[in-house]
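Assemble and predict.
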Amino acid sequence: MDDLCYTPAHELGRLLREKKVSSVELTEAVFGRIDAVDEKVRAYLFLMREEAMVQARAVDAALAGGQQPPPLAGIPIGIKDNLCINGYETTCASKILKGFVPPYDATVIGSLKQQGAVFTGKTNMDEFAMGSSTENSGFFPTANPWDLERVPGGSSGGSAAAVSAGEAVMALGSDTGGSIRQPAAFCGVVGLKPTYGRVSRYGLVAFASSLDQIGPITRDVRDCAVLMGVIAGHDPKDSTSVPRGVPDYAGSLVADIKDFRIGVPREYTGEGIAAEVRAVFDQAVQVLTGLGATVEETSLPHTKYALPAYYLIAPAEASSNLARYDGVEYGHREPAEDIVASYKKTRSRGFGPEVKRRVMLGTYALSAGYYDAYYLKALKIRTLIKRDFDAAFERFDLLLSPTAPTPAFKIGEKVADPLAMYLSDICTLAVNMASLPALSVPGGFAGHLPVGIQFIGPPFAEERLLRAAYAFEQETGWVAKRPAL
Amino acid sequence: MITIKDVEHVALLARLELSEDEKRVYTEQLANILEYASVLNELDTKDVPPLTHVLPLQNVFREDKVGEHLEPETVLARAPEREDRYFRVPRLV
């Protein structure tokens, strides 16, 4: 049964169509796996077992009726708990939203429902997606399936751990500074952060609106392409989504990258990158060279300013977005004498330490007398970072880097030191600042821990990223490895 | 340098109630983060425009017509406290 849980969705789709397996069998296998391992991994906040079985039976009925189902019909998918599913609790792993049941679907959820996908449940995350380890969940931390004493990364740690542990065939995450790619790297799965505007954010609980994107976390690159094809597209409900046709991502998967010009920014491979990550990365460069790509060193000179600028911009946007949690229209409320006291009590008890820290930092950066020095300055740095990438993409088709500076770290290791935690997004967050697409694919192992490599592309070059990652995956086969749980 | 007074002021703006312990920790941590951010001052950005959005997005207009919307009852049912068709809140003044 575990083999079924580790079969990619594109393969399962064929088995379903050929009636070699039923959607009910597949869904039962995945919930069986959840029952067997989630006590250890704790990838899920809430399970949707009954509704999953109802949906699986509906898919089987459609198949029995001779219908040709869409690619994701009957596929068990985990959903990060910052995406709204009509009628099911959505908490962002925050106590302030405990018990909140949204009365509408996120657009990506609607797209998956149209496919006939089966939702397994809501996956754990850092509270409001603020964090890099899932330890900031307001409920409990998630463990890395490759080593239960280590973090799965974050903030989409529950989604990445669920796919890695066979507790979901694929999952949705969101990425504001690396929250899809870094956990994908830590858990040995594939994660894609699309170009800003490529996927509708409607129904995604906002963290930093100019940086957030929803994206796939999958077992292999083909699944990533299939899921991307389903969630991408313009949505009138998100005015920042781009009215632009959706390419046939799965159709673009040709394992051929001859003549690809790939740049390696030296700022992403030097100081701060662990030796064992560097070793995996160097091997990956060799593989790509062997496949006929030209790999050359390049430079993104403003890289060292990306992290400090990000940690002004993202908290500033967050402090504004999170002002809505006041205990008036929905969510948790602490009773008090007057309304200001109620706001303060509600927010102080509802938000965890990292959320408060970022709300404080963002409020400070936006407050009178500091706006120009911090927030405006950071937005200007953002322009310089974008220009670095623009210049690099005049010479290169893609950029390549490690996804994270280290493999998964120990639970508790960085909790007391926010800056050390922020540094684990050093290779990913400039991509969000420049609104670019980037994909993390398993690149090899450091001891028993997976290491990811990241392809970065110019805006709307998702096909190129998928193709390069597919060629690399076909050559290396790292995706076939499973954690011993 | 950020002081405990700054932290208290920002906490009020952000409608957060901090314990003495939290005030102390946040003063120290915010000071560290802002100190780290001061590296940005190395760059002369006088002639650099700020970047808010990368994509050339324009205002989106639509007909001023009532579209799909949530029923008031659906929304009010989620309120911590309500009265008739209103959200009920503690005393304002």
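Chain B touches chain A through 51 residues (CB under 8 Å).
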